[in-house]
Amino acid sequence: MNNEQFTLINKALSDPNRLQIIQMIIQQERCACKLLVFFDITQPTLSHHMRILSDCDLVHTRKDGKWSHYSMNLKTLSDYSDFVNQIYRASLAAASDGVSTESECCEPNKIEEENPKCSF
């Protein structure tokens, strides 16, 4: 997974409705008509949410007549989880190597003198 896809997934999951949709379809494939029952949104709005989830490859879409059925793309979800774990492991490694989290280039007193509204 690259940074761009990771960012797209984060944006997709930042909406409460889309997050709830993910929680519903992770259990089983669901038809759009069944999803609509749980939300106070229109069918075009649901389609918009599903397009965002599909565009970042989190969701598979299967057409059956006029209805769309949605399911999780578990491969993408696994890749996303691995990416987050890599970031976490890197932060643990940096912490155990004694990498400072405070930047040496910052001089709080100087910044405060230059801009009294900014204080640490």
Unreliable stretches: none
Give the N-to-C terminal Cα separation. Answer: 37 Å
Q: Note the quaternary state here.
A: single chain
Largest sheet: 3 strands, antiparallel
Name the beta content range.
5-15%
Name the helicity range: 55-70%
Large-scale geometry? elongated
Strand order of the largest sheet: 1-3-2
Number of helices: 6
Describe the secondary-structure layout.
Blueprint: H1 3-13, H2 16-25, E1 30-31, H3 32-36, H4 43-55, E2 59-64, E3 67-72, H5 74-96, H6 108-114
Antiparallel strand pairs: 1-3, 2-3
Helix pairs in contact: 1-4
Q: Please, could you describe this protein's structure?
A:
It is a single chain. It contains six helices and three strands, in the order ααβααββαα. It has helices spanning 3-13, 16-25, 32-36, 43-55, 74-96, 108-114, and strands at 30-31, 59-64, 67-72. A hairpin with a 2-residue loop joins strand 2 and strand 3. The two termini are 37 Å apart.
Tag the structure with descriptive keywords.
120 residues, mainly alpha, 12% strand, elongated
